[in-house]
Amino acid sequence: MSALTLSTSSAATLRADAVVVGIAKVPSSDKAAKATVVVAPGGEAVDKAFGGKLATTLETLGAGGGEGEVTKLPAPADGLKSPVVVAVGLGEAPDKKGTYEPETLRRAAGAAARALTGTKKAAFALPAEDARSVAAVAEGALLGAYSFTSYRGKEDKAQKTQKAKGAGKDSSAPLAEVALVGAKPRDKAHKAAVDRALVLAEEVHRARDLINTPANDLHPKSFAAHTRTAAKEHGLTVEVLDEKALVKGGYGGILGVGGGSAQPPRLVRIGYTHPKAKKSVALVGKGITYDSGGISLKPAGHNETMKCDMSGAAAVFSAVVAAARLGLKANVTGWLALAENMPSGSATRPGDVLTMYSGKTVEVLNTDAEGRLVLADALTRACEEKPDAIVDVATLTGAMVLALGHRTFGIMANDDTFRTAVHETAGEAGEAAWPMPLLPHLRKSMDSTIADIANMGERMGGGLVAGLFLKEFVPEGTAWAHLDIAGPAFNESAPFGYTPKGGTGSAVRTLVRLVERTADGETV
Model pTM? Predict the structure, then answer.
């Protein structure tokens, strides 16, 4: 994890390996003319070192100020202590009275941090007029400074000797230190914003690391061990139901999904309580540590990244730990429904009927629609504790990816007011989300001739059908929301903003912000 400091020094005098400034574009009144590039607030000292010609120099190099655009150039011989200037695009400049949106700053800082991989220290001289912008820059830089190298080859002796002498650097290591220029170390609001950003980034990184870990190392038992370690460190309670306890408790959904694997399933409850809490929130995460599809086997080309099918459980786990570390005044329980979905002689077959923890029976028409089965058991169990609200998070359906793409998750709920609150919360956290309906007419498509319900329904609107299935396991009167993060949970394309390739930690920040709002009495 990168170190983070607040600096009162000028961007020109702070010693660092690089200094980051923002640039923006100002559209011309002549539509045919090219937009003008300007240096954003925070970069004045750096611009002065270029004789007021930094924007002109960057334009000459082809920079246009577009969001996420990164341009590097050497610093002038005099005027800056940093040898390299990194200019990152902020998009269109706001009017004179306006400020940059937090997510714009977050993405810009993340793009700059990624461009500085392998660098020891960078000064970030981006707009930071208030605590909100300080938080955004800090979050973006820390989230962008991420790499997963646990399975890379070990260095040989020559490489280690070179590094010890300072003759070489690890080109894959994230930016080691972020110095925020313009933030005020003695300002309580600025310090609180940075402290929160550090916790958020560390917990998003925790989720990313879990998601990126191969399934031969991360299975239900080892995932549960991670929760025990974190619980001990942060004063959380943890309960792990192993396969024997699951059988005794009648968790037919989790057992039915995990029955085909040599790695038995687990249900983990991790809890945080605050002595002054007035509200409680339950978070439920789908934790399929590998999803082959089971007997309804996925075809080649669709199973290589299925280690990420536990992203919901990773998000829930990290969010509960973050709530504890931030000392939020709300009681939070996290429920991790952990199983590996594999084909074998003991696997659930299409056509089998499972008796769920709730007592309902489910006809399994497709074993690759397994996430809803483990979630159903966990939802029922979580609701027994009568939380004020419950939110489940899952990489549940390809249909949601088709509907919303790879960067936006869908939100469904049994209460429109609560769905709106969750959507607003995601926006505050900087995560793209969209409210989706639970259309009653789709429920009939899950009618079964032999069981209470089938685990499949109409193909068109499949993401909504899955949400309707889960709704069956939430009692009336309990505010519930379902986040389908199948699109943004795992980035298979190029990195962008503060989002890396691979596991993203989607929904962690939304869940933490939801708990904060709950603690403040805003959501439930």
Answer: 0.95
